[in-house]
Design goal:
Order of helices and strands: HEEHEEEEHHE
Radius of gyration: 16 Å
Number of helices: 4
Largest sheet: 5 strands, mixed, barrel
CATH topology: OB fold (Dihydrolipoamide Acetyltransferase, E2P)
Number of strands: 7
CATH architecture: Beta Barrel
Strand order of the largest sheet: 3-4-5-7-6
Helix content: 25-40%
Length: 157
């Protein structure tokens, strides 16, 4: 009986999350996902690594979205000038980004830190981004990267 109740709970939670993901507002200037925020004091994504104090940064970052999770919109990547990216996630899937946000400039507010991402997790993200099997197969080994845990995201252009 406990297994049946637990299964029903999990299915209803997944259903609610899927429904919320379908109701996400399209990316348009001024739209906010998650907590309300302004663009004031946002630093360019290219300056983020230099601003990590004791391995962390709290504040706002602005940048252009290069990729977004095509499954639920639960993460996105901001592009740096050198072509590398900064992963932006939402804690506990608190909110989702629209799948049409790629190419838009956003401000994100939250906390950044350097994390090690396993090969399996990198491949999972590549699958979420609809990468080809060939691109996914090229992912080898864990890597350290700057990740941003966002409390809010605002589309600024």
């Amino acid at each position: 009986m406990k297994k049946i109740l637990f299964s029903l709970f999990v299915l209803s939670a997944v259903s609610v999350n899927a429904q919320e993901a379908d109701e996400i507002k399209p990316a348009a200037k001024g739209v906010v996902y998650g907590a309300q925020l302004t663009e004031t004091n946002a630093i360019p994504v290219d300056d983020l690594t230099a601003k990590l104090v004791n391995g962390t940064f709290e504040g706002k970052v602005t940048g252009k979205v290069k990729e977004v999770c095509q499954t639920m919109g639960c993460w996105m990547k901001l592009e740096k000038a050198d072509g590398s990216t900064v992963m932006v996630k939402t804690k506990d899937h608190a909110f989702f980004m629209p799948k049409d946000i790629v190419g838009r400039t956003v401000v994100v507010e939250g906390t950044a830190s350097v994390k090690e991402e396993s090969e399996a997790k990198q491949k999972h993200y590549a699958e979420d981004a609809n990468k080809s099997k060939e691109e996914i197969a090229k992912i080898k080994g864990a890597k350290k990267e700057v990740q941003f845990m966002a409390s809010g995201v605002k589309v600024v252009d």
